[in-house]
Known about the structure:
Blueprint: E1 21-22, H1 23-30, H2 34-42, E2 50-51, E3 57-59, H3 61-75, H4 81-95, H5 104-170
Antiparallel strand pairs: 1-3, 2-3
Amino acid sequence: xxxxxxxxxxxxxxxxxxxxxxxxxxxxxxxxxxxxxxxxxxxxxxxxxxxxxxxxxxxxxxxxxxxxxxxxxxxxxxxxxxxxxxxxxxxxxxxxxxxxxxxxxxxxxxxxxxxxxxxxxxxxxxxxxxxxxxxxxxxxxxxxxxxxxxxxxxxxxxxxxxxxxxxxxxxx
Length: 172
């Protein structure tokens, strides 16, 4: 991850109206627990946040955006944390500074990195395609179930209304 080094603990001056958020605020904003945020940090899904002199974590808007991206990958696509980490790593390779074309060793390293990321990204795309293909019949099953339930409800409602009309005519 390319990010500035965290500011030394004692020198952080954060205004009360700062964009930086403490861990409890980020937990409330993202729906994650504070423990989950610490766990994601341990797994290096994002850079360690800046800390205040008392050790309190301060999350930048970039940190919060990355957490939201992680949640999308996990929630929407049901990727594991290992898969999320591989996706994030692939995204970081794309944002690295260009290599000097005259640096043969640097070019070879970068080409190897790109080959690795291309293979991983291709695998992730294949996985996503398989998940999407599995969702199509599931959607059809759910739509059929919904239609059957709506028909069952309508029949019950009609029977109930018919019984009420019959009961009212008996007492008339």
